[in-house]
Amino acid sequence: MDLAHRAYAARMRGATIVRLLLAASLLLSGCGDDGAPVARSTPGASDPAAPAVEEEATSLPPGAQPGLDDLDGDGKPDPTCSTQDFGAGLTLRIPCEIPNPHEPAEGTTLVKDSLFRLPAYEANLDGISGALVTARDTGGAKVVIMIFNSDNLFATGADTLNESHTLDPLIALLNAKFAGAAVQVRGHTDATGTASANQALSERRAETVRAYLTGHGMQASGVTAVGLGSTRPLVEETNDAGRAFNRRVELAIRLP
């Protein structure tokens, strides 16, 4: 492991599971019993201070959709201006302005339209460094994407977990905060080697994680696995730090 990669891992380990639990709790607090978003304390329709519907609609940027989440904390839902396909059925609404975007590891640069630019939180699960990204799908349902560095889960080129209990804290978190959600395990590699080898490795790693989660008591409505090889990088691979950053496993959690 080179110095840049060590620095990245150290930075990610600075976050704690408490922070991830808090972030997850805040996300879930935005949903009612039926999964519909619950409005924050903004002026109601009967409030004289509430703007007219027509005024709110005309204030949106051209082509934007009304927002569902108050991402910047100004008391108003933030509109989305586009959607983006991240592969394997994961298409998300993209806010017109993105508050709290993640910054990549030192020495790396985000690729254009990187998933990592969306609103995010750093997280740590007993040594599994990662991040938590929040979004909405095209239908408006909440999606939480947990991103874990593969180097903390697998040896180089391997598809068996480094330690059998590594994912146990993750299962406990998923059951506590996301029980009944649909989960897609998404494997990614860097671009070293052939595309076919990377695709196969990403599929095997995703399946390993899926099998462990479902075999150790994760409560979900459905868990699937998919490999995307090196086709969906987060950062440019101009150095070892970039390649390490792109080696990852994601959990795309669709809230019920």
TrEMBL record:
It is found in: Cell outer membrane. GO terms for cellular component: cell outer membrane. Signal peptide: none annotated. InterPro entries: Bact_OuterMem_StrucFunc, OMP_bac, OmpA-like, OMPA-like_CS, OmpA-like_sf. The keyword DNA-binding does not apply. It holds the Pfam family OmpA. Gene3D superfamilies: OmpA-like domain. Residues 141-256 form the OmpA-like domain. Keywords: Cell outer membrane, Membrane. Residues 38-81 are annotated as: Disordered. The keyword Membrane applies. This is OmpA-like domain-containing protein. It comes from Virgisporangium aliadipatigenens.
